[in-house]
Design goal:
Helix content is 41%, strand content 19%. It has 381 residues and is α/β, with parallel strands linked by helices.
Length: 381
């Protein structure tokens, strides 16, 4: 296959797959120019990474009934983000706006109010606009770059592909990854909106976050017990099982988190096995809560280094948000494991929207569990 594929062919394959899974695809007229319709949406302003018309339409549709100034204020927040020269601070703010909405002060019937406008409907995928385009030209200062493929949700450029020629033995996913480093330096105004990065050379395909090293860019596989055609490229599998509109919304809402040590921000994207396992565990938990006669949720087995601690964080966060904020008890059989896992949960307090607590005795465990107010409690056997 690699003998006749080139970078332009791979773009075409990716765009075809994206069209098949539900994206509106705007293909450029040539390999070296952007799509004219997409350019028109931003008034041919190549310094503008957002499709503002689509963003405004989404804000009005999902949050109806407010005056024009409210919507302009919300759009301005998405344009400014954290108003920082630090790309990751801006990216963190973007994620906060996507998940928590833009807070806008206004007056309603003479009363000062703060309202929240959401840019994406995570409950109803059909209420959103999913667009894919190639060769999206971006200018920043003296630099001009054209990322290979960009995916927009309601006008926000949230996914970027960098593709390399499989017929060239001197380039591959390492060079695609390096290209993203260039983009971060030269068109950070575009990259600060990114939620997921995709690299592929037509043979290999990997997904990662803005702060991930190449060793943390991971292959995305099909779900267990799903048979796929052996001829499917890794890139096709990734698009079909990671980037469908419903899967992409699920990942952005539930499987991305940020950690900070005060000096550096780290963005974490779940791996495919974490995504499938946690979704299954949440589904099973929901079923058990609805059936008082069946309390068996199941057992998870993952190998050492597979990210079990983060899987627990993702599970706890989703359960807290979707199942009425129950009290979650985490029991370890060793103090060192307890300290390690507690530290992981504490670092993810923003994602969890709460800080974990520690029970030092059975009496304290009983006290925590007797409260009907949620919480995440750690203890040892």
């Amino acid at each position: 296959m690699a003998s006749y594929l080139n970078e332009e062919n791979i773009e075409g394959i990716a765009l075809r797959c994206l069209d098949e899974v539900g994206y509106q695809v705007y293909k450029s007229a040539s390999y070296t120019s952007p799509n004219a319709e997409i350019d028109a949406e931003r008034n041919n302003d190549h310094t503008q990474p957002i499709l503002k018309g689509q963003l405004e339409n989404a804000l009005r549709k999902l949050n109806p009934g407010f005056n024009d100034e409210v919507y302009r204020n919300a759009i301005h927040q998405f344009e400014m983000l954290a108003d920082s020269p630090d790309m990751m601070l801006n990216n963190h703010k973007l994620h906060e706006l996507i998940i928590g909405g833009a807070k806008v002060k206004t007056s309603i019937k003479g009363e000062d109010r703060t309202i929240t406008l959401y840019p994406i409907d995570f409950k109803n995928v059909d209420n959103n606009t999913f667009v894919a385009t190639n060769q999206f030209t971006m200018k920043q200062g003296e630099h001009e770059r054209r990322p290979d493929i960009t995916l927009f949700i309601n006008g926000l450029p949230l996914v970027t592909f960098e593709l390399k020629n499989p017929a060239n033995a001197n380039v591959g996913i390492q060079q695609a990854f390096t290209q993203f480093s260039t983009y971060k330096e030269e068109i950070s105004s575009y990259m600060q909106y990114n939620e997921i990065l995709i690299i592929s050379d037509g043979i290999n395909a990997r997904a990662g976050s803005l702060t991930a090293g190449i060793d943390r860019f991971m292959r995305w596989r099909e779900p267990k017990n799903v048979d796929i055609d052996d001829s499917m490229m890794e890139l096709e599998v990734l698009i079909k099982y990671m980037l469908t509109p419903s899967d992409l919304l699920n990942i952005i809402q539930n499987f991305i988190l940020f950690e900070s040590d005060g000096d550096k921000t780290i963005k974490i994207l779940a791996a495919y096995h974490q995504y499938y396992m946690v979704n299954k565990a949440v589904k099973r938990t929901s079923k058990v809560l609805a059936d008082p006669d069946d309390k068996r949720i199941g057992v998870v087995w993952h190998t050492t280094g597979s990210g079990k601690s983060l899987s627990m964080v993702f599970y706890s966060g989703i359960v807290a948000r979707k199942l009425g904020n129950p009290t979650i008890l985490v029991i370890n059989d060793r103090n060192d494991l307890d300290d390690q896992l507690f530290g992981t949960f504490a670092a993810a307090h923003e994602y969890l929207q709460q800080n974990p607590d520690h029970a030092e005795s059975r009496g304290e465990v009983r006290k925590y569990m007797s409260k009907n107010s949620g919480g995440i409690v750690f203890s040892t056997i």
